[in-house]
């Protein structure tokens, strides 16, 4: 029984991380669309043009919506959305490293971690485990 409790505990943690990933990506997408000051400053620092912000916001929002669809209906949509978010945030971390902007690299790193947890959770759901 101890092993079952561990699995259920991990499932709860991964579910919570997936929900947090949805909320975090939806909120940062709104900030991107609104061209919030901190978003503009960070984008300029890592040499991402301001004109790219709406497109990047759309990718983040699509990932969040895809995770919700995966949680509620079609799990493979959630898997695909999670993979897309992982790739997106790998790119964000690479952009920070390339620009040598390390003082706030924890933020895309945290989004990457949440996205990886979401992919793990969605994959477990899709596999029926």
Automatic annotation (TrEMBL):
Keyword Transmembrane helix belongs to the record: yes
A GO CC term assigned to this protein in UniProt: membrane
A Pfam match: DoxX_2
Listed InterPro entries: DoxX (IPR032808)
Main localization, broad class: membrane
Record carries keyword Cytoplasm: no
Signal peptide: none
Transmembrane stretches, start-end: 12-31, 76-97, 109-127
Recorded topology in the membrane: Multi-pass membrane protein
Protein name per UniProt: DoxX-like protein
Subcellular compartments: Membrane
Organism lineage string: Bacteria, Bacillati, Actinomycetota, Actinomycetes, Streptosporangiales
Keywords: Membrane, Transmembrane, Transmembrane helix
Highest rank taxon of the organism: Bacteria
